[in-house]
Predict the 3D structure of the following.
Amino acid sequence: MNILMISGDRSVVEGKKSAFWYMLEEFSKHWGRIDIICPRANVQGDGIRNVFGNVYFHPSSKGLLRQPAWIVKKGRELIEEHGHSVMSVHDYPPFYNGIGSEWLSRKMKVPYILEVHHIVGYPRPASFVEWIGRIMSHLFLAHDTYGAKAVRCVSQGTAKVLRKWGSDPDSVFIIPSFYLDKDLLRPRPCVKDYDLVCCGRLVSNKGINEIIEAISMTHEAKLLIIGDGPLRSSLEKKAEDLKISDRVKFSGWLPENEDVYKAIQSAKAFVMNSKSEGGPRVALEAMALGMPIITTKVGVMPDIVRDEENGLFTTGSAKDLADKINKLLDYPTLRERVGQEAKGVLDKFEKESLIREYAEFLQSMAK
């Protein structure tokens, strides 16, 4: 059976071993052929990119405004040539994937499953752009989902919001996408050079500003920040202004998952302070590694974390973060107990089983 995927992720085309790359590596085992239509990528030339033996990317040569038309044009060519039985469509504002896929589905009579991994700006927008994205989602998502044969959500919270906003409750399914690799996520003895670690793109949504403020309120705690992004220079300046530059290290992006996992374990605790998220996967990976985590109630975290049992919840304010950080650092027995309990997440989100279930779900929706 062949599948056509409509995605906004062009990281694989650009040569990055992103979460999508690792997912496709396993997902490809369940299909005869996978074709993926995505936006224009930052690479030389245009055309097909063969990633694995049976996985082909088709980046557009045009801008995003013309993406719906590209989805219809390229999708029609691919379906006529390869006979795809089902489409999987990852959608988010401004919803060009959903618009193009609905047109394509009507034209070619191939059902599509809409994937809503998270709602932009929910529960809290971090910027004006996210605020606009949340309004657009409220206005458009219910219509968007009614064109699909089914809707895949990855958390209870997102499914609840979609139903509240008018999506058909019977068409909304919760199929997690947090694929944890047991072979890689093995806790190992590590020198604890840092008290706290966070990991992610350095953008306003991630709440790194508040984490740095919280570090300045703690008892000389040291922070490792893994990742990069547009806010890096302003975050470095903030640490400087707070006179804690010697306690905050920016590692930038690390090349492989193994490097990230090793760096995470060089700290005593992990913090995730996002204002809105679909996962976040990295927090679950930290839990699988036996790290006690401090997290906001976003994405899948309310479904998984039991406060002060396998993680600690924070409101996200600098003051509350500092209180939770001090609590974990001051009580090693609590830290150890929470970390041990956190490891249970690995059984819930084991990679091969979840991806097989996801593939079977899509195949059950085929024409």
About this structure: The chain has two domains: 2-179+350-364, 194-348. The first helix runs from residue 19 to 27.
